[in-house]
């Protein structure tokens, strides 16, 4: 667990191996390293949860429809609390709120892991998603404030690598723990006990990973200056809308297909769950590793051109996946989509955050959670309806069109003129 605490430092140490000159280029400092370490832990938690929770709920007797409704609680909670938490972060300090949320999140995870009845599961899921939303609201403003402007894309690319690439190993950890406990107890791996043990391990990982967050409170508070802010102006609202609309469109496109990818590969090509697990672990690692190339791409093309080009390429990869006549073609298309998608956020997030004042960044982070939750709520609903009536092709086409629209809107708003960063 100490390795998890120092995850950010280990990433930086790997990058700076070879001399002080490289340290000047890649060094991020204690605050950023702590945030990167926590992102690594967060990635492990998300991957482990996404694998184990559906199996755990099914072992308790809930069918797929009930599990779907339980998962919808998370998106709805994020939608409701993101903006209030973002505003709260701007007022009391993001680092302090991040530390509080980090300690409370494992309590919610443990509550879910120890619950069996629907009311208890719903209550603990609401609690856990409220505390987890703090991470998504506070991380981007904190990391932007902790890293010099010229190094932000690199910092966010490593953050994405930790979240998606290294974090995807959480599914292997969860599956291994469940199998080991099942062998020890002499029961089936899909029994309640082994899956509950994996859920509780997830809570423990998050608890230990959150402890170092308390060491960044003074540094972050001193550097960000979040106390006190002027009222919103019309220009602020317009800028927020322009920054958020492309993200909302791409969230809708992603939500339209991501949750259905296992079903797509299973129904169309007959892949079993075990094979799918390794497939999506592989694509997660590819997406994380590709994020490390974001700084070079942004330098070569510029932020807006890079983001727009990546969004358009994601749309092409989606279309190729849906149209592939053989499984290897679909796997290549999905791998390309994961790689391209993993490269967008390390460029888009610092670009957006650097365009607003420091005191507004927590609010913008909260609004990004709203666009994510909206996209991942509406996208699956419409996609599911299309799949039932017309098959996978139109659903994938809808996702691809959403990405093309996102790229077009981004270019319309920011491609013809250059906005200087606020800081």
The secondary structure category is mainly alpha
Query: Whole-number radius of gyration?
Result: 21 Å
Share of β-strand residues: under 5%
Query: Uncertain spans, ≥5 residues at pLDDT below 50?
Result: 1-26, 218-228
Tally of separate helices: 19
* H/E series: HHHHHHHHHHHHHHHHHHH
* Biggest beta-sheet profile: none
Give a nutshell description of this structure.
By secondary structure, this protein is mostly helical. The chain is 83% helix and 0% strand.
Description:
The chain is built from 19 helices and no strands. It is an all-alpha fold and 423 residues long. α6 packs antiparallel against α10 and α18 packs antiparallel against α19. It is globular. The two termini are 36 Å apart. The N terminus is likely disordered.
Write the layout of secondary structure elements.
Blueprint: H1 2-5, H2 7-16, H3 20-26, H4 30-59, H5 64-92, H6 94-114, H7 118-146, H8 152-166, H9 169-185, H10 192-210, H11 217-224, H12 234-257, H13 261-269, H14 273-291, H15 294-301, H16 303-323, H17 327-353, H18 361-390, H19 392-415
Helix pairs in contact: 2-4, 4-8, 4-9, 4-10, 5-6, 5-7, 5-18, 6-7, 6-10, 6-11, 7-18, 8-14, 8-17, 9-10, 12-18, 12-19, 14-17, 15-16, 16-17, 16-19, 18-19
What structural keywords apply?
mainly alpha; 423 residues; globular; disordered N terminus
